[in-house]
Amino acid sequence: MKPWAGLTVTLLLGAILAFLSVAGPRPGRIDDSPAVFSSARAMADIRVIAAEPHPVGSPANAKVRDYLVGRMRSLGLEPRVQRAVVRGVAVENLIGVLRGADRGAPALALMAHYDSAPGSPGAGDDASGVAAILEIVRALKVRGVPVRDVAVLITDGEEANLLGARALFAADPIAARIGLVINLETRGGGGRAVMFETNPGNGALVSALQGAAVAPVATSVTNFVYQRMPNSTDLGVAIGAGKLGYNFAFIDRQVDYHTATATVDRLELGAVQSMGRQALKLTQHLAFAPALPARAPDKVYSHTFGDLIIAYPPAFGWVVWAAALGLLAGAVWRARAHLKWTHVVLGAALSPLMLIGPGLVLWAARMGTGHGFGFRAQQPLLQQFGLWETAIVLICAASLALAARLVGRRSGSPGVWLGLLIIGAAGAGVVQQLAPLVAYLLTWPLLLAAAGAAAGLGGERRFAPTAFLVALAAVSVGWITAIGHYIAIGLDEPWLLSAFVWLSASALWPLLAPVGDDRKIGWAAALIPAVAAAVIVAILR
User: What span, in angstroms and rounded, lies between the C-alpha atoms of 7 and 194?
Assistant: First the structure.
């Protein structure tokens, strides 16, 4: 395999895997099977709910309430209205029940809110969640009578600090019967739905999600981060009341979050389809199960590709880390005759620079856009997020190319790669000790890179080991890039993405040798994406 071919194929395959991991599904159609979720059918309700802004207490919200009562009645949910005054605000929650075979079993609840933010039609937040629940109930009835009751909780006043949920879980009789809640939220108008929050003690919930996953986006990192943020949704109230639950939302197109542009015509149908079909499969799994999941020790978990979620107890992370160390030890033994320890030291010294350097450049680029920080201040950036994300990717690529060029011909040395991997292993061990729920972000790429090193460190660049390196690196880069996409959307702190440059380097480094070997090509590979990123930043400014 030609030197450049390996890197080119790796980046192309990685880009394809990343794209497939973040792209939404094909929207549903009106004539889809009655047993499946269809965003086209859900859109009929979204159009009515999001016809105009309808904040809590407004006449428009009363119109939506009346419409939803009629829709719930047509589905046989026997709806009722819980009226309460919370913190001086009158709220009206809608409660219905799809009866199950065992009325005494803990109920499964589907929850979303029907009020919108002031001035926003709320096609995403949360007309999509409400309409998805109605479509889910319709599809559930096609399957038959569930084992347990499925409660439908459509709350009011969520945008006014979760007032409806507070009233419901504090005073309504239905609250005592609920064993588990699936909450549907949104923070934008597009993208694939993310299961971003569960309650502490989520081991059994994660196992259930594994069994019902449909192209999922779910990681213990988002759960770990979200539980440490000031944000909250109705599910936070339910968890505070002792309930177990899942929180789903799509978060792309955040320029349409709580704004006048959150209209039906700007809503991505694929996003509604993604959320609805995931929630339907999970609802079916739980509604027809003999028992609901109970509290169990937390698990480390993450989606990978397709429908696969990998999950394990936090302590098992040490096994993954030890396996990577074992592969590294085997690689060192196999390549011992080719190692120069000065090169190992060089690689070890390069590792922290590849973490700090890109972070500083990404920080400078974010400052260079001229837009302030915080959700409102960054609205102009969100309007052109595709451009901004392209700039981030270009900066990351330029950073990798620059590191290889600075090392020069030694970039192809097995010692430099080994030095990078040794520091990566040390960092993974520290994170495994301090924050095991997020350590897989380091240990999984390390394991793949160590497997590549065991197969090819110090050996000749023959086709079979090079192809193996390419396959491992493509999987690693594709998965890392997809995770980075959601972090870039969710957090306005792009310098954090330098960690993904550092992680990508562990698998890509042996394929970057041509960038370091040829001075002209090396500098071009670094400068061209850097200049392109600078042009994009200027455009954004």
Answer: 31
Residues 6+ apart with CB under 8 A from 282: 182, 208, 209, 212, 246
Query: What gap in Å lies between CA 267 and CA 206, rounded to an integer?
Result: 29
> Of 132, 114, 133, nearest to 54 (Cα)?
114
User: How does pLDDT run across 333-348, given as a tens digit for each residue?
Assistant: 888 777 888 998 999 9
Handedness of CA 381, 386, 390, 396 (dihedral sign): positive
Q: What is the DSSP letter of 438?
A: T
* Domain ranges within the chain, ordered by starting residue: 3-21+313-540, 33-312
> What is the pLDDT at residue 126?
94
Question: Over the stretch 470-488, which tens digit does the pLDDT of each residue have?
Answer: 999 999 999 999 999 988 8
Assign a CATH topology to domain 33-312.
Answer: Aminopeptidase (3.40.630)
pLDDT digits (tens, 9 = 90+) for 509-537: 888 877 767 777 778 888 999 999 999 99
H-assigned helices in 1-75: 3-22, 39-49, 59-74
Cα–Cα dist 527/263, whole Å: 41
Contact assessment for residue 249 and residue 185, using Cβ atoms and an 8 Å cutoff: yes
Residue spans of alpha helices (H) in 247-296: 269-287
Dihedral sign for Cα atoms in the order 473, 477, 483, 484: positive
Q: How far is CA 181 from CA 199, 370, 527, in A?
A: 10, 42, 51
